[in-house]
Specification:
α3 links the parallel β3 and β4. By secondary structure, the protein is of the alpha/beta class. The protein has a single domain, classed as Rossmann fold (3-Layer(aba) Sandwich). The longest helix has 13 residues. It contains ten helices and six strands; from the N terminus they run βαβαβαβαααααββαα. The protein has a six-stranded parallel sheet, sandwiched between helices.
Length: 235
Amino acid sequence: MSRTNQKTQLPFVFISGWSFQSSVWDDFICSNQLSNAICIDLPYLNQPELDKHSVDQVCQIIAEQIPENAILIGWSLGALLAIKLASQSTHIQKICLIGSTPCFSAKHNWQGVELDSANEFKYNFKRFPQKTLRRFAMQVQEPNNDADIKKKLLKHQFDATHQLSLMHYLDLLFESDLRTSFDSLNCPILQIHGEFDTVVSKNQPEQSLEIIKQAGHAPFITHPSDVANCLMRFI
């Protein structure tokens, strides 16, 4: 999907969040006519059997799909991977992190998901995968209750047949601490965060931070014009 943008001809590379297909970006890309858009699914999701892979291995596969001088846009887990990618490459022009944090888990002097809550989510996903996926889609949508938004999220969400690989990505998400990588980034950074995001804690670094009013964890879906305005100012 490639469209012309008046402000830049640099390629845009989109990385989706946990449990969502790269097609979750399609409406945003089309409505804003972003040029040279490349949407990347998380690796390994189509493999029936999967060994656990490290964040470095995942990023190595993604990096092979990123052209030089790209503007990297990651959402949630995709933003976590974008931080790692940008810390390892001098060819990424800028990064935009949506619903992001360099560390999802709670640490000393760092708000995040507590270990008990992370384990409970993984337990529920292991026992009731489809039900847990639907509940997570509803949490991503909050506080927006629009039926069309809900339908869109469910349409672009992987189903329980990808349970094994999605479980590995949950481990990767909760085990990764990229705060040092974030602090070492040299490229321009834009962070976009929903005012009422219940997935990511609000203690993320305040560098170049834009808050989308009345939005939750997926502002590019619920408030696409606001996110687009932030992105156009950034590029």
